[in-house]
Amino acid sequence: MTSDDADGSFDADPDPERVAVLREVADDVRGETSESKQLANILYRTSDLYDEDEETTPEEIVRNVKFILEVNERGGLGR
């Protein structure tokens, strides 16, 4: 992975080990509370950035995380 370049771009090289660690942490923090489920979903979604089988960008992940937070704030998808 390289950090943000001067032009603001971000390059996340596939990193199976990073994917595994992020997903393991997500599994560990997932619990019964909405907050723990929310955090686990965010970590799992972030891991997609490093998964060679996923095609996503940091911008897509930020949009998805915002959606996760908004859904939680509203009390769920069905409301």
Word description of this protein:
With 79 residues, the protein is an all-alpha fold. The protein is built from 3 helices and no strands. The protein has helices spanning 16-29, 34-47, 58-74. Helix 1 (16-29) packs antiparallel against helix 2 and helix 2 packs antiparallel against helix 3. The longest helix is centred in the last third of the chain and has 17 residues, at 58-74. It is flat and about 35 Å long. 10% of the residues are buried. The model has no long low-confidence stretch (mean pLDDT 86).
What tags apply to this protein structure?
79 residues; 3 helices; mainly alpha; 0% strand
Q: Give the termini separation.
A: 39 Å
Topology as a string of helices (H) and strands (E): HHH
Radius of gyration: 14 Å
Portion in beta strands: under 5%
What is the number of helices? Answer: 3
Which residue ranges are poorly predicted, with pLDDT under 50 across at least 5 consecutive positions? none
Characterize the main sheet: none
Structural class: mainly alpha
Q: How many strands appear in the DSSP assignment?
A: 0
Range of helix content: 55-70%
Dominant shape = flat
Q: Write down the overall mean pLDDT.
A: 86
Question: Any chance you could write out the topology, listing elements then pairs?
Answer:
Blueprint lengths: L15 H14 L4 H14 L10 H17 L5
Helix pairs in contact: 1-2, 2-3
Short description:
The chain is an all-alpha fold. The chain is built from 3 helices and no strands. 57% of the residues lie in helices and 0% in strands.
